[in-house]
Hints:
The strands form 6 sheets. Strands 1, 2, 3, 4, 5, 6, 7, 15, 21, 22, 23 and 24 form a 12-stranded mixed β-sheet that branches. A 3-stranded mixed β-sheet has the order 10-14-13. Strands 18-17-19 form a 3-stranded mixed β-sheet. α3 packs antiparallel against α4. It starts with 12 loop residues before the first strand and ends in an 11-residue tail after the last strand. It has 5 helices and 24 strands. The model has no long low-confidence stretch (mean pLDDT about 90). The chain has helices at about 55-60, 105, 125-135, 170-180, 270-280; strands spanning about 15-20, 25-30, 35-40, 45-50, 70-75, 75-90, 95-100, 115, 120-125, 145-150, 160, 160-165, 185-190, 190-195, 205-210, 215-220, 230, 240, 250-255, 290, 295, 315-320, 325-340, 345-355. A hairpin with a 3-residue loop joins β23 and β24. The protein has 3 domains: about 1-100 and about 200-220 and about 290-364, Baseplate protein-like domain - beta roll fold (Phage tail proteins - horseshoe like beta roll fold, Roll), CATH 2.30.300; about 105-195, Phage tail protein beta-alpha-beta fold (3-Layer(bab) Sandwich); about 220-280, no CATH class. It is mainly beta and about 375 residues long.
Amino acid sequence: MPAPIEPFVCGSHRAFVYEMGGVNLVGELEPLSAVRWQRIRDDISTASVTVPTATCCEMLGDLRSILHELHLERDGEKVWQGPITRIEYEHEQTQLFAEDLLWQMKRTVMGYGYDQKSPNIWAVTERMYWLANDLCYGLDGNRWNVSLHPHHSFDSPRTSKQVYPFQYTVWEDFDSYAQYNGTDYTCVNREVHWSDNHYAWKIIPELDENYLSQFPRVVEYGNELATRVFVTNGLGQAGLGTDPDAAYGRVEKLITNQAEGTAGSATAEEIAAWAASATRYTQMPAPLNVVIPANTTLMPGAPWSMDDLWPGAWFQISVTEMCRPVIGAWQRLHEIVVTEQAPNGEQVQFTAIDPPSQMIVPVP
Protein backbone atom coordinates (compact mmCIF):
# COMPACT_ATOMS: atom_id res chain seq x y z
CA MET A 1 0.00 0.00 0.00
CA PRO A 2 1.53 3.38 -1.02
CA ALA A 3 2.43 5.85 1.71
CA PRO A 4 -0.16 8.60 2.27
CA ILE A 5 0.52 11.89 0.51
CA GLU A 6 1.49 14.67 2.89
CA PRO A 7 -0.33 17.96 2.12
CA PHE A 8 1.78 20.88 0.94
CA VAL A 9 2.61 23.41 3.67
CA CYS A 10 4.47 26.72 3.68
CA GLY A 11 8.11 26.59 4.74
CA SER A 12 11.01 28.75 5.86
CA HIS A 13 14.55 29.05 4.56
CA ARG A 14 18.16 29.11 5.68
CA ALA A 15 21.11 30.14 3.48
CA PHE A 16 24.70 28.90 3.61
CA VAL A 17 27.93 29.69 1.80
CA TYR A 18 30.22 26.85 0.67
CA GLU A 19 33.50 26.77 -1.19
CA MET A 20 33.44 25.66 -4.83
CA GLY A 21 32.39 22.02 -5.01
CA GLY A 22 29.84 22.23 -2.22
CA VAL A 23 31.82 20.31 0.40
CA ASN A 24 33.53 22.87 2.67
CA LEU A 25 31.13 25.08 4.62
CA VAL A 26 32.11 28.74 5.02
CA GLY A 27 29.19 29.82 7.18
CA GLU A 28 25.50 30.62 7.45
CA LEU A 29 23.98 33.87 6.20
CA GLU A 30 21.63 35.24 8.84
CA PRO A 31 19.25 36.84 9.40
CA LEU A 32 17.70 36.71 5.93
CA SER A 33 15.62 39.67 4.74
CA ALA A 34 14.53 37.99 1.51
CA VAL A 35 15.02 34.72 -0.38
CA ARG A 36 14.12 33.87 -3.96
CA TRP A 37 14.95 30.74 -5.94
CA GLN A 38 13.64 28.85 -8.91
CA ARG A 39 13.83 25.58 -10.78
CA ILE A 40 13.27 25.71 -14.52
CA ARG A 41 13.05 23.43 -17.53
CA ASP A 42 15.53 23.95 -20.40
CA ASP A 43 17.36 26.88 -18.85
CA ILE A 44 19.74 27.86 -16.05
CA SER A 45 17.94 28.61 -12.78
CA THR A 46 18.82 31.46 -10.43
CA ALA A 47 18.63 32.29 -6.73
CA SER A 48 19.17 35.36 -4.59
CA VAL A 49 19.26 36.31 -0.92
CA THR A 50 19.31 39.63 0.89
CA VAL A 51 21.23 39.86 4.17
CA PRO A 52 21.51 42.83 6.57
CA THR A 53 25.14 43.79 7.06
CA ALA A 54 24.88 44.29 10.83
CA THR A 55 25.58 40.68 11.89
CA CYS A 56 27.89 39.03 9.34
CA CYS A 57 29.62 41.91 7.57
CA GLU A 58 33.09 40.35 7.84
CA MET A 59 32.04 37.10 6.16
CA LEU A 60 30.13 39.00 3.49
CA GLY A 61 33.25 41.03 2.73
CA ASP A 62 35.31 37.87 2.28
CA LEU A 63 32.99 36.33 -0.33
CA ARG A 64 34.15 35.96 -3.92
CA SER A 65 32.07 35.20 -6.98
CA ILE A 66 32.48 31.68 -8.46
CA LEU A 67 34.89 30.61 -5.70
CA HIS A 68 31.90 30.46 -3.34
CA GLU A 69 28.51 28.82 -3.68
CA LEU A 70 25.08 29.69 -2.31
CA HIS A 71 23.13 26.80 -0.76
CA LEU A 72 19.50 27.11 0.32
CA GLU A 73 17.59 24.89 2.70
CA ARG A 74 13.83 24.82 3.17
CA ASP A 75 12.64 23.28 6.42
CA GLY A 76 15.94 21.39 6.66
CA GLU A 77 15.82 20.05 3.09
CA LYS A 78 18.40 21.19 0.52
CA VAL A 79 16.48 22.80 -2.33
CA TRP A 80 18.96 24.87 -4.35
CA GLN A 81 22.76 25.08 -4.88
CA GLY A 82 24.99 26.96 -7.30
CA PRO A 83 27.92 29.37 -7.72
CA ILE A 84 27.56 32.98 -6.62
CA THR A 85 27.76 35.09 -9.77
CA ARG A 86 27.15 38.61 -8.44
CA ILE A 87 27.53 40.38 -5.09
CA GLU A 88 25.98 43.79 -4.45
CA TYR A 89 27.09 45.63 -1.33
CA GLU A 90 24.96 48.45 0.06
CA HIS A 91 25.32 50.36 3.30
CA GLU A 92 22.71 48.36 5.24
CA GLN A 93 22.39 45.15 3.24
CA THR A 94 24.15 42.82 0.83
CA GLN A 95 22.50 40.92 -2.02
CA LEU A 96 23.92 37.66 -3.36
CA PHE A 97 22.91 36.35 -6.77
CA ALA A 98 23.69 32.83 -7.97
CA GLU A 99 23.09 30.48 -10.91
CA ASP A 100 22.73 26.73 -10.82
CA LEU A 101 25.54 24.35 -11.72
CA LEU A 102 24.76 24.45 -15.43
CA TRP A 103 26.71 27.72 -15.22
CA GLN A 104 29.90 25.74 -15.74
CA MET A 105 28.63 24.44 -19.10
CA LYS A 106 27.76 28.01 -20.09
CA ARG A 107 31.35 29.07 -19.42
CA THR A 108 33.10 26.13 -21.13
CA VAL A 109 33.98 26.51 -24.82
CA MET A 110 33.74 23.43 -27.04
CA GLY A 111 37.27 22.83 -28.23
CA TYR A 112 36.10 19.73 -30.11
CA GLY A 113 33.62 19.32 -32.94
CA TYR A 114 31.68 16.28 -34.10
CA ASP A 115 29.99 14.94 -37.20
CA GLN A 116 26.86 12.79 -36.77
CA LYS A 117 26.01 12.44 -40.44
CA SER A 118 25.32 8.91 -41.61
CA PRO A 119 26.52 6.36 -40.66
CA ASN A 120 27.38 8.08 -37.36
CA ILE A 121 23.88 9.17 -36.31
CA TRP A 122 23.71 9.42 -32.50
CA ALA A 123 20.85 9.27 -30.05
CA VAL A 124 20.34 12.79 -28.74
CA THR A 125 20.38 11.84 -25.05
CA GLU A 126 23.73 10.06 -25.54
CA ARG A 127 25.26 13.09 -27.29
CA MET A 128 24.07 15.32 -24.45
CA TYR A 129 25.87 13.05 -21.96
CA TRP A 130 29.08 13.31 -23.98
CA LEU A 131 28.80 17.09 -24.01
CA ALA A 132 28.17 17.40 -20.27
CA ASN A 133 30.61 14.75 -19.09
CA ASP A 134 33.49 14.66 -21.57
CA LEU A 135 33.58 18.32 -22.60
CA CYS A 136 32.65 19.99 -19.31
CA TYR A 137 32.44 18.49 -15.83
CA GLY A 138 34.88 15.66 -16.49
CA LEU A 139 37.63 17.92 -17.86
CA ASP A 140 38.96 18.97 -14.42
CA GLY A 141 38.02 15.88 -12.44
CA ASN A 142 34.49 17.15 -11.76
CA ARG A 143 35.61 19.81 -9.29
CA TRP A 144 31.99 20.99 -9.10
CA ASN A 145 30.77 17.55 -7.91
CA VAL A 146 27.92 17.47 -10.41
CA SER A 147 25.91 14.26 -10.88
CA LEU A 148 24.64 13.54 -14.42
CA HIS A 149 21.39 11.62 -14.94
CA PRO A 150 20.39 10.90 -18.56
CA HIS A 151 17.05 9.12 -18.92
CA HIS A 152 17.20 7.05 -22.12
CA SER A 153 13.99 5.68 -23.59
CA PHE A 154 13.65 2.93 -26.19
CA ASP A 155 12.59 5.59 -28.72
CA SER A 156 14.99 8.45 -27.94
CA PRO A 157 15.28 11.01 -30.76
CA ARG A 158 18.28 10.82 -33.10
CA THR A 159 20.07 13.51 -35.07
CA SER A 160 22.64 13.96 -37.83
CA LYS A 161 23.92 17.31 -36.58
CA GLN A 162 27.44 18.55 -37.31
CA VAL A 163 29.32 20.99 -35.05
CA TYR A 164 32.74 22.58 -35.55
CA PRO A 165 35.37 23.26 -32.87
CA PHE A 166 34.86 26.62 -31.12
CA GLN A 167 31.40 27.05 -32.67
CA TYR A 168 29.51 26.94 -29.35
CA THR A 169 29.88 26.81 -25.63
CA VAL A 170 28.96 23.39 -24.21
CA TRP A 171 25.69 24.73 -22.82
CA GLU A 172 24.67 26.34 -26.11
CA ASP A 173 25.00 23.01 -27.91
CA PHE A 174 23.44 21.07 -25.01
CA ASP A 175 20.51 23.49 -24.97
CA SER A 176 20.05 23.28 -28.75
CA TYR A 177 18.97 19.64 -28.39
CA ALA A 178 16.11 20.80 -26.18
CA GLN A 179 15.22 23.52 -28.67
CA TYR A 180 15.33 21.47 -31.86
CA ASN A 181 15.42 17.76 -31.00
CA GLY A 182 12.65 17.08 -28.52
CA THR A 183 14.50 16.78 -25.22
CA ASP A 184 14.13 18.39 -21.79
CA TYR A 185 16.71 19.07 -19.10
CA THR A 186 16.81 20.57 -15.64
CA CYS A 187 19.27 21.07 -12.79
CA VAL A 188 18.19 20.54 -9.17
CA ASN A 189 20.85 21.01 -6.50
CA ARG A 190 23.88 19.14 -7.92
CA GLU A 191 21.94 16.84 -10.25
CA VAL A 192 21.43 17.43 -13.97
CA HIS A 193 18.63 15.37 -15.53
CA TRP A 194 17.59 15.16 -19.18
CA SER A 195 15.42 12.95 -21.36
CA ASP A 196 13.29 12.71 -24.45
CA ASN A 197 10.41 15.06 -23.65
CA HIS A 198 7.93 12.23 -24.32
CA TYR A 199 9.55 10.14 -21.58
CA ALA A 200 7.67 10.52 -18.29
CA TRP A 201 10.62 9.65 -16.02
CA LYS A 202 8.99 11.51 -13.12
CA ILE A 203 5.22 11.46 -12.48
CA ILE A 204 3.81 13.37 -9.50
CA PRO A 205 0.35 13.25 -7.84
CA GLU A 206 -2.78 14.50 -9.57
CA LEU A 207 -3.96 18.07 -8.95
CA ASP A 208 -7.34 19.79 -9.25
CA GLU A 209 -8.53 23.39 -9.46
CA ASN A 210 -9.06 23.66 -5.70
CA TYR A 211 -5.31 23.91 -5.07
CA LEU A 212 -4.65 26.78 -7.48
CA SER A 213 -4.74 30.49 -6.64
CA GLN A 214 -6.02 31.27 -10.16
CA PHE A 215 -8.74 29.33 -11.95
CA PRO A 216 -7.46 27.50 -15.05
CA ARG A 217 -8.88 27.56 -18.58
CA VAL A 218 -9.84 24.68 -20.85
CA VAL A 219 -8.56 25.25 -24.40
CA GLU A 220 -8.78 23.25 -27.63
CA TYR A 221 -5.89 24.08 -29.98
CA GLY A 222 -6.93 23.72 -33.60
CA ASN A 223 -3.62 25.05 -34.88
CA GLU A 224 -1.76 22.22 -33.15
CA LEU A 225 -3.56 19.60 -35.23
CA ALA A 226 -1.29 18.01 -37.84
CA THR A 227 -1.90 14.84 -39.83
CA ARG A 228 1.35 15.21 -41.82
CA VAL A 229 4.62 16.58 -40.44
CA PHE A 230 7.82 17.26 -42.39
CA VAL A 231 11.22 17.57 -40.67
CA THR A 232 13.82 19.15 -42.95
CA ASN A 233 17.17 20.90 -42.98
CA GLY A 234 15.64 23.53 -45.27
CA LEU A 235 17.87 22.44 -48.15
CA GLY A 236 15.57 20.35 -50.28
CA GLN A 237 15.19 17.10 -48.33
CA ALA A 238 12.73 16.09 -45.61
CA GLY A 239 11.42 13.19 -43.57
CA LEU A 240 7.64 12.68 -43.36
CA GLY A 241 5.55 11.50 -40.44
CA THR A 242 1.82 10.84 -40.88
CA ASP A 243 -1.27 10.15 -38.82
CA PRO A 244 -3.92 10.11 -41.58
CA ASP A 245 -7.57 10.82 -40.94
CA ALA A 246 -10.19 11.13 -43.69
CA ALA A 247 -12.20 13.73 -41.79
CA TYR A 248 -9.29 16.16 -41.54
CA GLY A 249 -7.44 15.38 -44.78
CA ARG A 250 -4.08 17.07 -45.25
CA VAL A 251 -3.20 19.31 -42.31
CA GLU A 252 0.55 19.77 -42.52
CA LYS A 253 3.34 21.15 -40.35
CA LEU A 254 6.96 21.98 -41.27
CA ILE A 255 9.86 21.78 -38.78
CA THR A 256 13.22 23.09 -39.99
CA ASN A 257 16.58 22.42 -38.35
CA GLN A 258 19.21 24.19 -40.44
CA ALA A 259 22.06 22.72 -38.36
CA GLU A 260 21.72 19.32 -40.02
CA GLY A 261 23.59 18.72 -43.28
CA THR A 262 24.13 20.57 -46.53
CA ALA A 263 22.09 20.76 -49.73
CA GLY A 264 21.33 17.31 -51.13
CA SER A 265 23.66 15.57 -48.67
CA ALA A 266 21.18 13.73 -46.46
CA THR A 267 21.38 9.94 -46.64
CA ALA A 268 18.42 7.55 -46.53
CA GLU A 269 19.28 6.79 -42.90
CA GLU A 270 19.28 10.47 -41.97
CA ILE A 271 15.96 11.06 -43.72
CA ALA A 272 14.52 8.06 -41.87
CA ALA A 273 15.66 9.65 -38.58
CA TRP A 274 13.93 12.89 -39.58
CA ALA A 275 10.78 10.92 -40.39
CA ALA A 276 10.86 9.28 -36.96
CA SER A 277 11.11 12.74 -35.37
CA ALA A 278 8.29 14.00 -37.59
CA THR A 279 6.00 11.20 -36.43
CA ARG A 280 6.44 12.43 -32.85
CA TYR A 281 4.93 15.78 -33.80
CA THR A 282 1.80 14.52 -35.54
CA GLN A 283 -1.31 15.51 -33.59
CA MET A 284 -4.83 14.29 -34.30
CA PRO A 285 -7.43 15.25 -33.16
CA ALA A 286 -6.75 18.79 -31.95
CA PRO A 287 -5.44 18.65 -28.38
CA LEU A 288 -7.73 19.65 -25.52
CA ASN A 289 -5.71 20.92 -22.59
CA VAL A 290 -6.02 22.66 -19.26
CA VAL A 291 -4.14 25.97 -19.19
CA ILE A 292 -2.88 26.93 -15.75
CA PRO A 293 -2.08 30.67 -15.62
CA ALA A 294 1.65 31.34 -15.38
CA ASN A 295 3.00 31.87 -11.86
CA THR A 296 -0.07 30.42 -10.19
CA THR A 297 0.43 30.02 -6.44
CA LEU A 298 0.24 26.49 -5.09
CA MET A 299 -2.22 26.55 -2.20
CA PRO A 300 -1.52 24.90 1.19
CA GLY A 301 -2.96 21.40 1.33
CA ALA A 302 -2.00 20.53 -2.26
CA PRO A 303 -0.87 16.90 -2.69
CA TRP A 304 2.70 17.87 -3.65
CA SER A 305 5.92 18.05 -1.67
CA MET A 306 8.94 20.16 -2.58
CA ASP A 307 10.65 16.98 -3.82
CA ASP A 308 7.86 16.63 -6.40
CA LEU A 309 8.58 20.01 -7.94
CA TRP A 310 11.06 19.03 -10.63
CA PRO A 311 10.72 20.84 -13.96
CA GLY A 312 9.69 18.35 -16.63
CA ALA A 313 7.70 16.21 -14.17
CA TRP A 314 4.35 14.98 -15.51
CA PHE A 315 1.08 15.31 -13.61
CA GLN A 316 -2.63 15.08 -14.28
CA ILE A 317 -5.11 17.84 -13.57
CA SER A 318 -8.90 17.75 -13.46
CA VAL A 319 -11.21 20.73 -13.96
CA THR A 320 -14.88 20.06 -13.40
CA GLU A 321 -16.47 23.52 -13.02
CA MET A 322 -16.55 24.23 -16.77
CA CYS A 323 -18.94 23.86 -19.72
CA ARG A 324 -16.44 21.37 -21.05
CA PRO A 325 -14.95 19.56 -18.07
CA VAL A 326 -11.61 17.80 -18.36
CA ILE A 327 -10.64 14.84 -16.20
CA GLY A 328 -7.05 13.70 -15.82
CA ALA A 329 -5.43 15.91 -18.49
CA TRP A 330 -1.65 15.61 -18.54
CA GLN A 331 0.60 18.60 -17.90
CA ARG A 332 4.30 19.07 -17.24
CA LEU A 333 5.98 21.39 -14.78
CA HIS A 334 8.01 24.11 -16.48
CA GLU A 335 9.15 26.37 -13.64
CA ILE A 336 8.72 26.93 -9.95
CA VAL A 337 9.60 30.17 -8.18
CA VAL A 338 9.84 30.26 -4.39
CA THR A 339 10.05 33.51 -2.44
CA GLU A 340 10.12 34.25 1.27
CA GLN A 341 10.09 37.79 2.59
CA ALA A 342 8.92 39.30 5.85
CA PRO A 343 6.16 39.86 6.77
CA ASN A 344 4.43 37.93 3.97
CA GLY A 345 6.10 34.56 4.50
CA GLU A 346 6.60 32.02 1.74
CA GLN A 347 4.96 31.88 -1.66
CA VAL A 348 5.39 28.98 -4.12
CA GLN A 349 4.43 29.78 -7.71
CA PHE A 350 4.57 27.41 -10.66
CA THR A 351 4.11 27.37 -14.41
CA ALA A 352 3.02 24.30 -16.36
CA ILE A 353 3.13 23.48 -20.07
CA ASP A 354 1.15 21.24 -22.38
CA PRO A 355 2.62 17.76 -22.88
CA PRO A 356 3.71 16.41 -26.27
CA SER A 357 1.25 14.35 -28.26
CA GLN A 358 2.81 11.04 -27.13
CA MET A 359 3.77 9.84 -23.67
CA ILE A 360 6.32 7.12 -22.95
CA VAL A 361 5.98 5.62 -19.48
CA PRO A 362 9.11 3.95 -18.04
CA VAL A 363 8.95 0.18 -17.76
CA PRO A 364 9.31 -0.89 -14.08
